[in-house]
Amino acid sequence: MKKNLIALLIYGEPGSTKNALTEEKYKKLAAHFIDQGFEVDSVLYHDSISDRLAKELLKYNAILVWVNPIEQQGDRKILDALLAQLTSQGCFVSAHPGTILKLGTKEILYKVKDTEFGGDVNLYNSIEEFKNNFLNEVTGIRILKQYRGNGGNGVYKVDATDLKNSRIIVTHAKNGNEEIAMTINDFFQQFESYFANGSMLIDQEWNPNIIKGMVRCYLSGSQVTGFGYQEINALYPLINGIYKKPGQRFYYTEDCGLFKDLKEIMEKNWVPQLQKLTDLNKEELPVIWDADFFINKINNENTAEKYSLCEVNASCVSPFPESSIPYIVDMVKERIKA
Ligand SMILES: Nc1ncnc2c1ncn2[C@@H]1O[C@H](COP(=O)(O)OP(=O)(O)O)[C@@H](O)[C@H]1O
Ligand SMILES: [Mg+2]
């Protein structure tokens, strides 16, 4: 019988010798696919070879994508067109660009704002809207997030409590805790570029509970597959003059007792709500994605009061806990069968 063929698509400069089958992040996943009777190839993606890939990738039953051109200061235009074309020709692609748009941008924070895991969030569609409303609408410390980004890039803590002295203090999550004081004019000028090409800016209330650490809930489709816990995260506030740098994330299986409540509420309640708000059915959810939660109240019987959403990552989620692997493989099996 012909084996099902899987491509693990990762980013690589032309001439690169990178190989997903030997890379720490993917090698156990590749090995499990092979154990389960699949044939697995590592395929390197670069915008410059997308035409060739459009033909070569057609032979794969499933293409699992771990490419994030935004990290290379690019955009997803060419990659998304390729993935959409492959989908239309019958390949299973994860994550599909349409799914990423619905679930994996910072707009999701606005979509969920009225749910029990949402929060105080505004969305600005233009620099004019931002200028007219931001400083009037909100009080206290806010977090501004660009529409699409990762690694703290385009995420800013904004403290306008000294506004009467025309000073706004801005901290870019990407640059540690460096605080920059600026005038209102400079502030709005700095954010103008985030509205280019019809993009938007998301404004979330500052969550001081960041000091309790954050839980990353990993999912495959609608099932929770594991957790990560990171105690010190970006924008951790200065306490007693001490600045703590973000630390390592530790991984736990989906059965970890510490996060049992989160698994239960995600699978029963919050994932279905996310699906409804994004109009995504279970089969359209990515094979691996994650949701980051603040821990607002500890040792609280009421899970809904305990956690709130910081962000969702729907593309390029790696590393992931090893416990996710069988779920990913099972989901791919199901999608190919369908
Ligand atoms: N509302 C918030 N309150 C406090 N810290 C936040 C808030 N939102 C984000 N952060 C901090 O900034 C980091 C980056 O923000 P996030 O939304 O995760 O964007 P990115 O896509 O860059 O990871 C988070 O990991 C967290 O440490
Ligand atoms: Mg993040």
Percentage of residues assigned to helices: 25-40%
Quote the beta fraction. 25-35%
User: Radius of gyration, rounded?
Assistant: 21 Å
| Total strand segments | 15
Proper CATH architecture of the largest domain: 2-Layer Sandwich
Largest sheet: 6 strands, antiparallel
Number of helical runs?
10
Strand order, largest beta sheet:
5-10-6-7-8-9
- Average pLDDT reading: 95
Gap from first CA to last CA: 18 Å
* Uncertain ranges: none
Assign the structural class, choosing from mainly alpha, mainly beta, alpha/beta, alpha+beta, or little secondary structure. Answer: alpha+beta
Shape: globular
CATH fold-type name of the largest domain: D-amino Acid Aminotransferase, Chain A, domain 1
What ligands can be seen in this structure?
adenosine-5'-diphosphate, magnesium ion
SSE string, helices as H and strands as E: EHEHEHEHHEHEEEEHEEEEHEHEH
**CATH class category label of the largest domain:** Alpha Beta
In the CATH hierarchy, what is the superfamily of the largest domain? ATP-grasp fold, B domain
Domain module count: 3
Structure description:
By secondary structure, this protein is of the alpha+beta class. It folds into three domains: 5-94, Rossmann fold; 102-117 and 209-332, ATP-grasp fold, B domain (D-amino Acid Aminotransferase, Chain A, domain 1, 2-Layer Sandwich); 121-207. It is 29% helix and 25% strand. It contains ten helices and 15 strands. The protein has helices at residues 24-35, 50-56, 77-88, 97-103, 107-111, 127-137, 184-191, 260-278, 303-306, 325-337; strands at residues 5-11, 39-45, 62-66, 92-94, 121-124, 141-146, 155-159, 168-172, 179-182, 201-205, 214-220, 223-230, 249-253, 289-295, 307-313. The strands form three sheets. It has a six-stranded antiparallel beta sheet. Strand 7 (155-159) and strand 8 form a beta hairpin. It starts with a strand and ends with a helix. The mean pLDDT is 95. Bound molecules: adenosine-5'-diphosphate and magnesium ion. Adenosine-5'-diphosphate (ADP) binds next to strand 6 and strand 15.
